[in-house]
């Protein structure tokens, strides 16, 4: 793995390998080994998981950053939620995105799965007229 350099501002939050970290000062850190991490703006709280696509994102998030037991539970839940959503939707594009997300999660590429789930969330917001979850964003250029 190549080194990943992250610059964080005072007050930023990050979860690394399941541990929440809040930065008291501006910091520049290097991740020199593989780590499961999300920034505060990428995190979805249980209260925010209030629609089918958002529940899928939350389950995949748990599969990515939870501890060993939580990751298994999150992946199992994601499988069930993706199956249910796939059966309910009329969109072939959404079914394909969800299938790709599940395959990525099962291959331990949960960050990629989250990016795909975020696309499904945006689709759901448009179709159902929901307000976007502004605080949950997964940048396309960080993996």
Please outline the helices and strands.
Elements: E1 4-8, E2 13-16, E3 19-22, E4 27-31, E5 37-39, H1 52-65, H2 68-88, H3 92-106, H4 110-128
Antiparallel strand pairs: 1-4, 2-3, 2-5
Helix pairs in contact: 1-2, 1-4, 2-3, 3-4
Beta strand %: 5-15%
Number of strands: 5
Distance N to C terminus: 12 Å
Overall pLDDT metric:
89
Structural class: alpha+beta
Strand adjacency order, main sheet: 3-2-5
| Main sheet overview | 3 strands, antiparallel
* Sequence stretches where pLDDT stays below 50 over 5 or more residues: 139-143
Given the C-alpha coordinates, what overall shape results? globular
Proportion of helical residues: 40-55%
Give me the Rg, rounded. Answer: 15 Å
Tally the helices: what do you get? 4
- H/E element order: EEEEEHHHH
Short summary of the structure?
The protein is an alpha+beta fold and 143 residues long.
Describe this structure in words.
With 143 residues, this protein is α+β, with helices and mostly antiparallel strands. It is 48% helix and 15% strand. It is built from 4 helices and 5 strands; from the N terminus they run βββββαααα. The strands form 2 sheets. A 3-stranded antiparallel beta sheet has the order 3-2-5, with no helix packed on it. Strands 1-4 form a two-stranded antiparallel sheet. Strand 2 and strand 3 (19-22) form a beta hairpin. The longest helix has 21 residues, at 68-88. The model is unreliable at 139-143 (pLDDT under 50).
Give short descriptive properties of this protein.
single chain, 143 residues, alpha+beta, three-stranded antiparallel β-sheet, 4 helices, 5 strands, globular, disordered C terminus
């Amino acid at each position: 793995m190549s080194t990943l350099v992250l610059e964080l501002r005072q007050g930023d939050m990050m979860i690394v390998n399941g541990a929440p970290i809040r930065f008291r000062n501006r910091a520049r850190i290097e991740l020199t080994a593989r780590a499961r991490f999300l920034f505060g703006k990428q995190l979805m709280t249980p209260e925010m998981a209030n629609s089918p696509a958002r529940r899928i994102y939350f389950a995949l998030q748990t599969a990515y950053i939870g501890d060993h037991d939580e990751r298994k539970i999150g992946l199992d839940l994601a499988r069930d939620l993706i199956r249910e959503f796939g059966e309910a939707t009329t969109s072939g594009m959404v079914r394909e995105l969800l299938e790709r997300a599940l395959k990525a999660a099962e291959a331990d590429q949960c960050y990629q799965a989250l990016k795909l789930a975020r696309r499904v969330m945006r689709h759901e917001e448009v179709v159902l007229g929901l307000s976007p979850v502004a605080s949950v964003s997964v940048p396309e250029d960080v993996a």
